[in-house]
Amino acid sequence: MKRDDMLHPQVSGNKFRKLKYPLLGLQEQRRHVVSMGGIWSNHIHALAHAAHALGLPATALIRGAEGMHSAMLDDVRALGMQVRFVNREAYRQLRLDDSAWRGHLEDSGADALWLPEGGSAPLALRGVAELIAELPFVPDYLVVACGTGATLAGLLAGLEGRSKVLGIAAISGGDYLRNDISRLLSEAGYPDYQNYELLTEFHHGGYGKAPPDLLDFARQFAHETAIPLEPVYTAKMLFALRQLWHHGHLAQNARVIAIHTGGLQGARGFARM
């Protein structure tokens, strides 16, 4: 396992890598950073810590209604991030229109840097691609959880056609991620690598869903390995890897590296963890 959860105590995992280059150089400019996410968003949590460390003003557009609460929102507000709630329709529009966010800022965000959901900007792939050089060897399979597809795309960029990436979609109906992966590779200037397989049947009911068997698996895995998991991404990825191994999806002599993408703060939203 590649323990990217240990990259930084707060800006951990793939969030550290995806934020690295978009935020690089902004410290001197003091540019406002704006992004979007849910009330337990790992991306928003990591962005708030990174912006605070760099002295950058930041705003989060949160899917929900005034009065909604989470420990994640408490954290980011304490770090100075502004929180603005948007309804589901407006949030959907933010996904579809890269300029829609400006209407949610009082000053129209004229000089702000916009980061899409999950921090999945084309420039994010460059930071993720650097992970490959840190591996002790190039395995037959890299296994990673997928939310927006940017981390998987970044791994493909770093592998440059070698190996095969197994992406475990953490969301239901995740087939559309294939188009997003191709788009991100293209926008970032990389070839349309196809040495990956996107597996969409291990979402356990959808994004943020964590049935008892998944929570039990996460707890048992942590007990046996002393490696903490969260049920939104990493537990689903390793649960799937176990199933793939038992069902003969992987060759018995295959060399496999699973990527721990961090996001452990999100486990606070699940009482049974």
Automatic annotation (TrEMBL):
Residues 4-262 form the Tryptophan synthase beta chain-like PALP domain. InterPro entries: ACCD_DCysDesulf, TrpB-like_PALP, TrpB-like_PALP_sf. GO terms for molecular function: D-cysteine desulfhydrase activity. The active site is at S41. Its cofactor is pyridoxal 5'-phosphate. The modification N6-(pyridoxal phosphate)lysine is found at K15. The keyword Ion transport does not apply. The keyword Translocase does not apply. Keywords: Pyridoxal phosphate. Belongs to the ACC deaminase/D-cysteine desulfhydrase family. This is 1-aminocyclopropane-1-carboxylate deaminase. It comes from Undibacterium pigrum.
